[in-house]
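Slack export, channel: ligand-projects

TW: morning all. Re-posting the request from yesterday since it got buried. We need the structure predicted with the small molecule present, not the apo form. The ligand is magnesium ion; the SMILES is in the block with the sequence. No rush, but it would help planning for next week.
GE: picking it up
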Amino acid sequence: MQRADPSSLLDLRRLSVALGPPGRRVTVVDEVSLSLSPGRVLCVVGESGSGKSVTALAVMGLLEPGRSAVTAERMMLDGTDLSQLGEAGWRGLRGGRMAMVFQEPMTSLNPVFTVGEQIAEALRVDTGLSRPAARERALAALREVGIPAPETRLDAYPHELSGGMRQRAMIAMALVGEPALLIADEPTTALDVTVQAQILALLGELRTRRGTAILLITHNLGVVAETADDVAVMYAGRIVERAPAAVLFRDAQHPYTLALLGAMPEGASRGEALSPIPGRMPAPGTAPSGCRFAPRCPFAGSDCAETPPLRAVGKDHDVACHRAPIEAAA
Ligand SMILES: Nc1ncnc2c1ncn2[C@@H]1O[C@H](COP(=O)(O)OP(=O)(O)O)[C@@H](O)[C@H]1O
Ligand SMILES: [Mg+2]
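GE: finished. pasting the full C-alpha cell output, ligand included:
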C-alpha cells in the first residue's frame, strides 16, 4: 500500500527536496509520494544518485536547513506532522519513534566508546534510565540482534567487531528506542553476501516480531526480492513505478524497471548489483523536461516530452510512463 493512505504509519505526499545554497538549489527529490504501514517492508530501489538517501534524510530531518529546502503536501509519521517539527521535535523522534541505520556502520559508531556505552548512552539520553538499567537494556538489544556472546561484545570497541557484527550493533542501537519506523539505507552493501543475507533475515524478523515498519533503500534488486513487501522504483529524483513486490517482479511495466530486471542474472536471488543500462542518469538540474528516462528509453517518442504522471495500471500498481504497459521480453 503505497498510495496516500491516512491510516499508514509514514505518509509522504509530493515530497520534494532541493539541495545547495540559497539561490543555487537544485531539485534532487521531485514530488515523491510513499506510504508505509506497520509491519511492512517498503524497498526504494534505483541507481546511485537517484535521490534515495536524500529522501531518507528528509524523513529523518537530517538535512542541513541552510543547504536544503524540503517541501511536501503531506509528511506525516504516526499522527505527527514532520513538516512542522523544530529541532527539538526531530531529536525527540529520532531514537524514539524512528531510527536509521546506514551503509557503513564504522562511520556512525564512535571509535572511542565501547558498543555497550554507545547503546546505553543513546538510551539514557531519552529515557533517563540509570546506568545499570541502561546497560541491561543494551545487553538485551545485542542479544535480540543475534550477536554471539553479547556480555563480552558489550565491552568491545567498534574496531574489535567484524563488519557484520558492527552492522548488528548499529541495528541494536537503532532498536533500543523501540522505533515504529526503521530506515535502513543500503545496510548490507558493504558486507559480503553471506553476512548480507543474515542482516536481511534479521530485519525480516524484526518486522515480524515487533511490527516495525521498514523503509529499506537499496540499489540491489536481489535485496528487494529477498525482503520487500512493496517496491518503489526511483529514477532521477522521481518515482517511476511502484507496486507490491510480487507484482513488480511478475508484471513490471516501466521501461526503466524492465531494464533493471533484465539486468538481473537468471536465478539470482541476492548479491547481484544492477548491471549498467546504456546511457547515464541525468545529474540533478540537467534532466530533460518531460520523462527523465526518455533519452535512454527504446520506446520513447515525441509525447515523452510531456511529464508522464504516475497512473494506476492495476491494484496498488502505478507507473509513470505514457507507453505503459510495455510487455517484458520473454
Ligand atoms: N549535500 C548535497 N549537496 C548537493 N547535492 C547532493 C548532496 N547530497 C546528494 N546530492 C545529490 O543528490 C542526488 C541524489 O543523491 P542521493 O540521494 O545520495 O542518491 P542515492 O542515495 O539514490 O544514490 C545526487 O545527484 C547527489 O549528487
Ligand atoms: Mg544513497
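GE: first-pass observations. The first strand starts at residue 10 and ends at 19. The radius of gyration is 20 Å.
TW: perfect, thank you
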